[in-house]
Amino acid sequence: MALDTKKFIDKLIEKGFTHLCVVPCSFVKYLINEAINNQNIEYVPSASEAVACSIAAGLKISGAKPIVIVQSSGLTNMGSCITSLLKPYDIKFPILTSWRTYKDKDSEIQHQHLATNLIKLIESYGYESTILDNENFDKAIEQIDICDKTNTIGIIKKDSFSKIELEEKHKLDLSHYVKRSDFLEILNDKFKDSDTLFIGTTGNTSREMYSFMQDTNNFYMAGNMGGALSLGLGVSKSDKKVIVCGGDAEFVMHMGGLTTAGRYKNELDLLYILFDNESNKSTGGQNSYQSHLDYISIVKASGFDVANRIIYSLENFSKELDKIKSSKGLRFLHIKCGVDEETCRPPYEVVKRDKI
């Protein structure tokens, strides 16, 4: 059984809640969709869970009534904000987290630990927890009130909300962009059987690399969103040639990785490719709302050598790669791409590798 999503959001609005500060999760995609559709509550997409929590704290002390929604793996990103801001200043608002489950060899490994330790994590922050009742609407709303008034974090199970589609005006049309798989096939062709290590960020990027880059040396980073570049930095500092395949939502989560990498630009042989599909594809396809960003300027200011144009075509991508193959340094390419049908996740034994 699932809660009526539209009715749920309408009730939150009736009770005075004003903002949903969110890092998307597929478990709550219908709740997110309704928040985007509904003009009476503001959807605040956030670069990371810590950012969402801090924004909500600012809203609350200014008189608004925010709610934070994240996924369980991202609750760890909120730890410092919870323990060093919310608790000391006694700032309370509902924090809702999905509870990602784990089945050995049939789930993404980043969820393995918190699948059984989520409540312990919440307790370590000095909070209690309550599992949202998805069979009793009134009880679920009562639980939100409890989370608003006490140090209690609400836990959302899978399939807790009824299906809601985004209204047409909020949907992205990416059909005019080349699919990411086509770009990945070029990488596979140009770097097959080489000693270059490819690092794929979490989500569909790694899945598609497994499907379309079978001839390259790939590390599929499940979880740790925002950390692919920093992982690549560590590998590159060990005198290896590295290409990081990232995404637009991943780019903003931990941008300190850019400035840290720039510090070592003269030591590295590293290429960071941003595959920008303007969306959070693996969590429901919602717009990442980052059209205001000039990725190239941000990366250039951090110390990277950049191609001073966004790449839309396979031909231009191929030309840029040929330049990069014949040189060394810290480089960046911004690729606009479309989306593919979802591919299978890399099998457990391929993901969980000890050495590169």
Task: Quote the beta fraction.
Answer: 15-25%
Average pLDDT confidence is 93
Rounded to the nearest angstrom, the radius of gyration is 21 Å
Write down the overall geometry: globular
| Main beta sheet | 6 strands, parallel
> Distance between termini?
45 Å
How much helix, percentage-wise, in residues?
Answer: 25-40%
Q: Which structural class fits the helix and strand makeup? A: alpha/beta
Number of E-state strands: 14
Secondary-structure element series: HEHEHEHHEHEHEHEHEHEHHEEEHEHEH
Strands side by side in the biggest sheet:
2-1-3-4-6-5
- The count of helical stretches stands at 15
Point out poorly predicted stretches.
none
Descriptive notes:
The protein has 356 residues and is of the alpha/beta class. The chain contains 15 helices and 14 strands. Helices cover 39% and strands 17% of the residues. The N and C termini lie far apart (45 Å).
